[in-house]
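Incident review: delayed structure delivery

Summary: a single-chain prediction request sat in the queue longer than the usual turnaround. Root cause was a stuck worker, restarted by the on-call engineer. No data loss occurred. The affected request and its eventual output are reproduced below so the record is complete for anyone auditing the incident later.

Affected input:
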Amino acid sequence: MSPKVTETPEALPPQNTPAAAERARPRMVLAHGEPAQAGLISRHFRRLGWEVHVAPSGPQARQLTLQLAPVAVVLHTDLPGESGWLTCDKLLRQSPGQKVILLTPLPAHERGAFAAFVGAAGLVGAADGIHALVDEVYGPALAAAG
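Output delivered after worker restart:
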């Protein structure tokens, strides 16, 4: 007969540690070709409690998405080397169901059909501002995760 194994409190992972709190934060991958804009967006979401991982290119955003399984991926459409449109399409082929929101320098209504074509959950135009991006991220991304 094998002995009964019980976990002592010391063997259990602590619940109120910075590492435990970090795991509870929603995670985002952000790919933007302009470091200043990436910094502004990432700081805003970090203040809202998000764990943000910034990628300077589409391929790096896809790699981070596979590694981290984020709640949301935000891609600027004008990424260097590989557009955000193409990155979105490739990302959704490798991670079906992933929530991707595209940022475009054009008015969103002009590119909405193309965003739907590549499978994006949302599209935000530059003129729409950070609050429109927050609304997009919190809407479709967290509703799907919950």
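Verification: The radius of gyration is 18 Å.
Action items: add queue-age alerting; document worker restart procedure.
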